[in-house]
Amino acid sequence: MSVVVAPSPILAVSGAVAGAPGSPDAAVAWHYGDPLGEQRAAVTRTAVIDRSHRFVLRITGAERLTWLHTISSQHIAGLGDGQSAENLDLDLNGRVLNHFVLTELDSAVWIDTEGDRGQALLDFLKKMVFWADAQPAEADYAVLSLLGPKAAEVLATLGVATVPGTYEAVALPDGGFVRRMPWPTADSFDLVVPRDRLAEFWTRLTEAGAEPAGMWTFEALRVAAVRPRIGLDTDERTIPHEARWIGGPAEFGAVHLDKGCYRGQETVARVHNLGKPPRHLVLLHLDGSADERPEIGADITAGGRAIGRLGTVIDHYELGPIALALIKRTVPADTALTAGPAAAAIDPDSVPSDDSPQAGRLAVDRLRGR
Known about the structure:
The protein contains 8 helices and 19 strands. By secondary structure, it is α+β, with helices and mostly antiparallel strands. The protein has 2 domains: about 1-275, Gyrase A, domain 2, CATH 3.30.1360; about 280-355, Elongation Factor Tu (Ef-tu), domain 3 (Beta Barrel). A 6-stranded mixed beta sheet has the order 10-11-12-9-3-13, sandwiched between helices. Strand 11 and strand 12 (about 190-195) form a beta hairpin. The longest helix has 10 residues, at about 35-45. The termini are far apart.
């Protein structure tokens, strides 16, 4: 069942154009009149993007980290104050249900995730508390993203004297916190602020020099960075290995391979030690001369045979029309592809290298005398 997210007050800003009706970004601005220029600003100067349609929740209680550690894919039991990580909620078969970012700060775990999935994630967490000292609850906070090489100058106007390192967070003097992320650009920061002060923070950031940019900018840079968005670049069959979510915080991943049991761990371990993922996430370049863009979820074909699923399709200010796709791992990078009405080509630099033998497979071969 789809969840309707309330429109952001930032849509009242002059020039704001809302995301397409029915899209995951319908509640926020898609652009402010110059989408390609906004992307350039986010890469060369600094831009602020309204991502207030994300769902924010807060977990308190003395056992919040050790409890969450046991039911999710990331190693977070020893997370220190001001540290963050990406994490996954998997089903029993290891398929991805939720992707979220968490921050431990001031005796609480803060989580933000997709707006249309947040309530379901919160409901799941509440059901899993049992006897643990952990209290998950929705938090009336909103997310703004600040991108660009001049972000530190803008943050200084909010009282942030020291820019955090990757996945580190510091409290904002006036409430909320700022967290550095490794994507979609090298200079990416999330501000998690009280929702009733969202417009105030937006004004302060833009008056300090951050240029307004829409979700088109964030999505284009995310796709170029080959970072998946759940529900767009994943389907009901997606496992973490396919979507590049394997790894601890140091690897910018969401699944730690050296931790205790959690739901879906058996599949993760089996694929890592004995097998290969059936698909992998790649960047596609699309033929811009096609009359229309292909739709998310469309089949990708090679020689008339379906070999993959199309994800986010977007126009990038330098790369032109690009997309993410889950492609069968055995498809060579130079294969001519078709995505809906458009010809497509795999960016060879985006193809994961997974040819090395797994430790588990090597052990089995040794036992068999191979």
